[in-house]
Design goal:
22 helices; about 1000 residues; about 10% strand; alpha/beta; 6-stranded antiparallel beta sheet; 6-stranded mixed beta sheet
Length: about 1000
């Protein structure tokens, strides 16, 4: 990523729009950002970082709302815009910070947009201009998260050492992003899933095997056999179980064969007895059926007289049935004649009513006809009133217009007076505000000076505190040093005493082996006048002496380490004392008190600055209000004159119109009321006249209708009477012809059709049943001829007993067969399941071992991915050491640490430093501030070299360094400058914030940040 332009609006100390155009550097790629403390140098880095990630560059500036400029006007949105190149493509990102305007209850909306330049136009680079999508796209383009960007490409104050001193997990995340090692991490994740799947499958199969064992007691009968003996043991043997199932299967095969033979024998005997029972039952049923049919035949023969009587009744009813049609015709004609008679009576009644209504309607018609003159007079009055309506309506409108104009003139004159008074008051208020502003500006002339004093006081107080902390640390280290020295002396004395006793013990042992006349192995003498004798002291072994010597060696190493640590602390104290002496710092002076006083003074001055800004804003608003009042007064005067002229004209027209209208009708409501009253009267008269005309016409129509109806009904009644008489005569004639003496005789023998059909059906059934019974009795007598009935109860008991025996035998056979099959199935299932279980357990073990190796569960705590990353890290360290050895005069060299992290954390990416002066290797965290700066700078540069050499997805074309050089001596500063100058020749842009004069003089390009007396800042590139 290479920045092109950075535009900050109302951001930090930059009040208005401030643009940093990096193209002004021309061919210079190394530049210094200089300016006073608090001018806004670090804010430039914050602007770049905020534009890219929506966050500032340092951890102490996490509140984005605090980045809004305190000098910005209330209506200006805080905006940062960055144009940058990456991968030969140009992008522009814009972010705005939400803020709350004065008087509002909610914040203004922010904005986040990302564009790419194509064909000299910027088009959206994401589907939706949302914070999440823009952040994802930025991370995809740069290859870094915000934290990684701050650790590698942008080194802000207090945070640039994080990659150097961070643990393995943090370095792993950074290097995974840079060197694309995610596939190795995904291998671990996939192996984990495979392991869990294999374990689940193995456990499922093991549960299935256990379930098969639990099914054995339920599926097979318990017995004193190998199978059930093995099942009762705590750890059943698989092979014994299989053998036991085979034995159970063979046993149940033999048992089922015996049961099947017994079942077949009993079933044959039962079938023979069953057939004999069936034959006996058939003969008994024939005897029973013969008795039943004989009884039924006797009953049918007893019904002969009854059937004869029914046959006679049926013949008479059939003769009467031939008269039913004529009888029905007579009944129908009687009903129709009665209906016609009722219709005629109704027509006569309605005709009389219609004649009465016509007479009444004609009388009312004559009364309404006499009101013709009254109706005409009302119509003429209405016409006159309607002609007055437009004039009276205009009067009301004219009067309202005149009244409205009178009110307008009064309101305008009142507003004019109020504005003139307000203008006078506003002039006086502006004069007072100007005086207050001049006083505040005078009191703020020392603001910048006090700010510089406060910054200087803070820096000195920080140095003094650090110096005092070093003194305290020296006392602590001296105490540890003295303790270690005493322990060395103590352990040396103990060791010497043990060694002396051990030598004495060895002399006693040697003396005990000497005899007179034998040469001494030490001196060769054959005389031994004073042999060493065993004392009462405790014997000392060689192991005790060696243990004491090892403890003494450990204490001596601890002593030397404390001695080196004390020397380092003393060197840092001497360096701090030299710095304090150069700055002429009085250690007895209470800088904290001065800092508090200066802080209070700055707070007072800042409140005055806020008040000054508020007063200036109020003055601008007051002057604008003054201008608005002057314009409003001119506008009101013009409006007053125009309204008065229009009022006079409309008033004259209104008075002229009054003379053309009667006084009692000048009000529109009175005229409308009069018109409404006349219209109501006229409508009533017209309605009454039209209504009576319609009533007369309706009465005439009604009378004509009922006259015609009466004539028709009368003729119809006469015709129906003639038809009724004819039908009665025909019925009487036919009744005599059929042999009936009277109508009463006819009604006695008459039967309904359903009744006749029922009698006929009953006679037919009787005849058929009688014939069937006679035939059945003859056949049954022939079939039982020469046979006798049998006692069925004994035979049935015998058959039932045989059935029970063969069913029990069959159940026993089925049970044996089921146990035989169950034993075979259990044997097959157990063999299959156990074989599969063993194979799955083997597979699970292989996957688990591979997963543990790949994820780093080994004695080195190094995963497969980290093993790959170690190669990259060692290349980075190698590249970093090329510069670090030069910067440290050959004293320091970075090495990858093999030590394991605490609490079993993953290891392998830690970094130690080897000190060539002491020959010791230690943690990089023990380096001093300046040494850490040099090491982290070299490490960042080494990482850039390695990334470029591998041509990865990440391109490190830019680096920003905020402070850090202040902890270096003159020689280290010059070497750092040489390193950076050599680095920028490779094409990278490097920006440095520094107050060191040597740095400014050695680098020709400078971005000057100047704080104006108003408090906000401006930037400018200066090339020498």
């Amino acid at each position: 990523m290479k920045p092109i332009t950075l535009t900050m609006t109302a951001f930090g100390p930059y009040k208005d729009k401030e643009t940093v155009d990096f193209r002004d550097l021309q061919d210079h790629r190394l530049f210094v950002i200089s300016g006073k403390t608090g001018a806004g140098k670090t804010t430039i880095f914050d602007g770049i970082c905020f534009a890219l990630y929506g966050q500032a560059s340092g951890e102490d500036r996490t509140d984005t709302k605090a980045l809004r400029s305190q000098f910005a006007d209330d209506d200006i949105q805080t905006t940062v815009e960055l144009t940058f190149d990456i991968h030969k493509r140009r992008f522009r990102v814009v972010r705005q910070i939400p803020y709350r305007k004065k008087g509002n209850k909610s914040d203004t909306l922010g904005r986040c947009e990302l564009f790419e330049e194509k064909d000299e136009q910027f088009i959206p680079a994401v589907d939706r201009q949302m914070v999440t999508e823009v952040n994802e796209k930025i991370e995809q383009l740069l290859g870094f998260t915000h934290a990684q960007f701050s650790q590698i490409m942008m080194l802000p104050q207090g945070e640039f050492r994080k990659f150097l001193t961070s643990d393995t997990a943090n370095k792993e995340a950074i290097m995974r992003k840079i060197f694309k090692t995610e596939p190795y991490q995904k291998i671990v994740e996939r192996l984990k899933v495979k392991k869990e799947e294999a374990n689940a499958e193995y456990l499922r199969e093991k549960q299935l095997s256990d379930a098969i064992l639990h099914q054995i007691p339920a599926k097979l009968p318990a017995s004193d056999s190998l199978l059930f003996t093995e099942l009762q043991s705590e750890y059943p043997n698989y092979h014994q179980l299989v053998l036991g199932l085979q034995q159970e299967h063979a046993h149940h095969v033999a048992q089922s064969k015996e049961a099947h033979e017994e079942y077949t024998r009993l079933y044959t005997v039962h079938n023979k007895k069953q057939q004999a029972l069936h034959d006996a039952r058939s003969i008994n049923e024939q005897f029973t059926k013969l008795l039943q049919r004989q009884k039924e035949l006797d009953g049918m023969q007893a019904k002969h007289p009854e059937m004869k009587s029914l046959e006679k009744q049926l013949k008479q009813a059939e003769r009467a049935a031939r008269l039913e049609d004529l009888e029905q015709q007579v009944k129908s004609n009687v009903t129709e004649w009665q209906k016609k008679e009722r219709s005629y009576s109704e027509a006569v009644t309605f005709l009389a009513d219609a004649e009465k209504k016509l007479v009444s309607a004609k009388a009312s018609y004559e009364q309404e006809l006499a009101k013709e003159s009254e109706r005409n007079e009302i119509k003429e009055q209405l016409l006159t009133l309607h002609n007055l309506l437009p004039t009276v309506s205009g009067l009301a409108t004219q009067r309202q217009a005149v009244e409205s104009l009178q009110q307008t003139v009064a309101q305008v004159e009142n507003s004019l007076l109020v504005n003139q008074q307000a203008s006078t008051q506003q002039k006086e208020s502006i004069r007072i505000q100007k005086n207050e502003i001049e006083k505040l500006e005078t009191s703020l002339e020392t603001y910048e000076q006090v700010l510089d004093q406060l910054a200087q006081s803070k820096a000195i107080a920080k140095q003094v505190a650090s110096y005092k902390q070093q003194l305290s640390q020296r006392q602590e280290v001296e105490a540890h040093y003295e303790t270690a020295r005493q322990q060395v002396e103590q352990y040396a004395a103990v060791y010497q005493a043990l060694e002396n006793r051990w030598i004495s013990n060895q002399a006693v042992v040697l003396a005990a082996s000497l005899h007179e006349g034998e040469s001494c192995p030490v001196c060769g003498s054959i005389d031994h006048p004073a042999k060493a004798e065993d004392s009462e002291t405790e014997h000392v072994s060689k192991q005790q002496v060696d243990t004491a010597k090892q403890e003494l060696t450990n204490k001596e190493q601890t002593f030397h380490a404390k001695q080196a640590e004390l020397q380092q602390v003393q060197q840092r104290i001497e360096q701090s004392e030299a710095e304090l002496h150069d700055q002429q710092v009085d250690l007895k002076r209470d800088y904290s008190k001065e800092q508090a006083e200066l802080t209070d003074k700055v707070a007072v001055l800042r409140s005055k600055r806020e008040l000054l800004k508020q007063k200036k804003d109020e003055q601008i608003q007051a002057e604008k209000a003054m201008e608005d009042l002057a314009e409003e007064i001119i506008k009101l005067e013009k409006q007053r004159n125009e309204s008065k002229s229009e009022l006079e004209t409309k008033r004259a027209l209104y008075h002229y119109a009054l003379t053309t209208v009667p006084e009692n009708l000048r009000e529109l409501s009175a005229l409308q009321q009069q018109i409404t009253s006349k219209e109501t009267t006229s409508q009533k008269l017209e309605h009454a006249w039209k209504s009576i005309q319609q009533t007369v016409q309706d009465a005439i129509t009604e009378k004509t209708k009922w006259e015609s109806r009466e004539m028709l009904e009368k003729q119809s009644l006469a015709d129906m009477k003639e038809k009724l008489d004819q039908s009665e005569a025909n019925f009487t004639k036919r009744m005599i012809e059929e042999g009936f003496t009277s109508k009463e005789n006819y009604m006695q023998v008459k039967l309904p059709t359903s009744k006749r059909q029922a009698i006929e059906q009953e006679l037919q059934v009787f005849a058929q049943t009688l014939h069937t019974l006679k035939s059945s009795v003859a056949e049954l007598e022939k079939s039982v001829e020469g046979k006798q009935p049998t006692d069925m109860e004994i035979m049935e008991r015998q058959v039932e007993a045989l059935k029970t025996q063969y069913e029990e035998a069959f159940a026993l056979y089925n049970q044996s067969k089921a146990w035989e099959q169950a034993a075979q199935d259990l044997h097959n299932e157990l063999e299959t399941s156990k074989s599969k279980e063993a194979e799955l357990e083997k597979t699970y073990g292989k996957i688990t071992n591979l997963y543990d190796i790949v994820r780093g569960q080994n004695h080195l705590k190094i995963s497969f991915e980290r093993y790959i990353q170690i190669e990259y890290l060692e290349r980075i360290i190698h590249a970093a050491n090329i510069r670090l050895r030069d910067l440290s005069n050959g004293q320091y060299e970075l090495v990858r640490s093999d030590r394991q992290e605490t609490r079993g954390k993953q290891s392998g990416l830690g970094i130690d430093v080897h000190d060539a002066y002491t020959g010791q290797t230690r943690d990089v965290k023990t380096l001093s501030g300046g040494e850490k700066f040099n090491a982290s700078l070299c490490l960042a540069l080494g990482m850039a070299d390695v990334i470029q050499s591998f041509q990865g997805a990440v391109r490190m074309e830019t680096m920003f360094i905020d402070e850090g050089f202040g902890a270096l001596d003159e020689e280290a500063i010059q070497k750092a400058i040489d390193t950076l100058i050599a680095l920028q020749q490779s094409g990278r842009m490097i920006g440095i914030i520094s107050h060191i004069d040597e740095m400014k003089e050695a680098i020709p390009a400078t971005l000057q940040v100047t704080k104006l007396k108003e408090g906000y800042s401006k930037t400018k590139f200066v090339l020498s």
